[in-house]
Request: fold
Amino acid sequence: MNSPDSPASATTAASKVIVAQALTPAAFAPFGDVIAPEKMQSDVSASSTPINEGTAQRFDDLTQLDVSEQGGEACVAIFRTRDGTHVAPYALTMFERHLLGSQSFVPMGQGRVLVVVTQGADAPDEDAIQAFIVEPGQGVTLRRGVWHHPMITIGGADVFVIERRAAQVDCEIQRIRGSFIVTL
Reply:
C-alpha cells in the first residue's frame, strides 16, 4: 500500500480517476463499432454463413471501414508493445483524432487493449472521457473524428490494426489540460 506521501498516491489524489468499463456495442456506439461475432449473433440482420464444408462460420460486415477519403487506402499493420510499456494506473497525456479515416484495433492472442475515448468538436471533451477494455476475441473500429488516447495495452500485446494510409498524414494531436488516470 502507498503511503499518503508516495508519488503514486499523490498522482491519484490530484487526478480524476476514470474506471475502465467492459466493452459492449451499446456503450461504445457513440465512438464506433465493436468487432466480435457475439455482436452479430444477437443481430437479426446479421450475415452469417457456413463455409469450408461446414467446418467454420463466416460473419460478414462486423464493422464499417472508412479509409478512402482523399485517396486513402486500407493499411494493415501490427502494433507491438512489451510488458511494462504501459503500467497501471494509466496516466493520460494527450488525445488524437483522424478526420479522414477510421481505425480498427483487434488484440491478437491473449492481448488486451485499453481504449480511451471522448467526443468534442475542436478539442477533446475532458468532462466526457470514457475507457473500455477490449478483451481477446473483441476489437473496435473508431469512427473518423473520434478523439482517442494513443493505444494503451494491458501488458505486452500484438494488436492487429487497420487504418487509412495516404500521402497526407491524418493525425491531429492535442495535449490534455487536466490530470487523469485510468484504472481497471
Notes: The first strand starts at residue 16 and ends at 19.
